[in-house]
Amino acid sequence: MGTYVWIGITVMRLNRSPTLFRSWFFFCLLAPSVFALDCTKTLTSIAVIQKVESLFDVYSELQKIQEDGKTKLAEQSPFLHYIKESGGGACASVTAFNLLQGLRVMAHLEPLQASSIMRRAFKKIPELKDGRVTNVQMTQLLNYFEKYLPDHHLNIKVQRAAISADGEGTVWEKITPQLFEVKPNEVKILSYQVHSNGQLLGRHFVVIKKSGEDNSIVVVDPNRPEKDYTYFFRRIKNDKNSEPSTQLVRSLTTVTAPSEQTFIVDSLFTVQLKPQ
After folding, report:
1. For residue 125, what is the DSSP state?
2. Helices 18-30 and 32-50 meet at what angle, rounded to 10?
3. Residue percentage of the chain with pLDDT more than 90
4. 13: nearest Cα among 59, 54, 50
5. CB contact at 8 A, 58 and 104
6. Closest residue by Cα to residue 273 from 158, 179, 188, 155
7. In angstroms, what CA-CA distances link 187 with 100, 134, 182, 196, 255?
8. What is the DSSP code string of 131-164?
9. Long-range CB pairs of 28-36, under 8 A, 24+ apart, other chains included
10. What is the dihedral of CA 187, 253, 263, 211, to 10 degrees?
């Protein structure tokens, strides 16, 4: 019974060619014992082609508050106890998990529970407990998470700004809106430097949910994953002898006060989901 219901639901969703889907439907009904598996695979393939969800929709669904008062995304505060007292935060590791959740939705898999997955990740890669995750460690973590995407492979590309102190990744010549545009079957993580009173406090990591034509991005922040944060890019000159850097600001019309924290774009991780 479950097989027939699943097929019926699939056919109703794929309504662009009714004649074709009616043929598949009755074909599967007439010979379920012999062809059920093949029909399921074929219909699933058609579903992937016909129903293309935007990354914005994927994360909007994951951000919804569930009955337990939580979302399907992870918040970093419950995982801070894994981080050494002298280390940074858990934002990088938690953001990697939130990227995994988006990829699982793209692969038509159920979202995972963060607690057990993160516990295994910290055990597998102990360096994550230092909190100040490098680009190499982030790539290692993303490759580790590939095990939770059966029948898929991850293609990971790392790019960084010239001012980045992390030596891993291709240096981009300049910031363009296309750099942060998210294409089908991929998710991007942005890391930015957090400065306060001229001092570098560390890096923060977020998932890019959407890039806009107005030189803006909408991100999922591990501090409050249920909320959208919108930032604009602003080119700034630090001093006469340094290369211009790119700052993230909440509004292009707002002038940052000297005592406020400033966010400087550092690195970008592009993760493509590829079927094996």
Report:
1. -
2. 160
3. 63
4. 50
5. no
6. 155
7. 9, 19, 6, 29, 31
8. S---HHHHHHHHHHHGGGSTTEEEEEEEEE-TT-
9. 29/4, 32/3, 32/4, 36/3
10. 10
Closest CA to 200 of 127, 246, 264, 129: 264
CA distance 138 to 156: 10
CA distance 45 to 149: 17
**pLDDT score, position 238:** 66
Nearest to 76 by CA among 231, 230, 225: 225
In 3-state terms the chain splits into helix, strand, coil percentages (rounded to 5) of 40, 25, 35
Q: What is the widest separation between alpha-carbon atoms in the chain? A: 76
169 and 257 Cβ atoms separated by less than 8 Å: no
Residues pairing with 216 in the sheet: 232
Residue-level pLDDT at 232 = 94
Amino acid, single-letter form, for residue 188: K
Residue 186 has pLDDT above 90, yes or no: yes
Write the pLDDT tens digit of every residue in 44-53.
333 333 344 6
Write down the pTM of the prediction: 0.79
Give backbone dihedrals phi and psi of 33, rounded to 5 degrees, phi first: -70, -30
**What is the rounded CA–CA span in Å between residue 104 and residue 112?**
9
> 144 and 157 in contact (C-beta within 8 Å)?
no
Per DSSP, the residues of 172-188 read: PSS--GGGGPPPTTEEE
* Euclidean distance between CA atoms 148 and 177, whole angstroms: 31
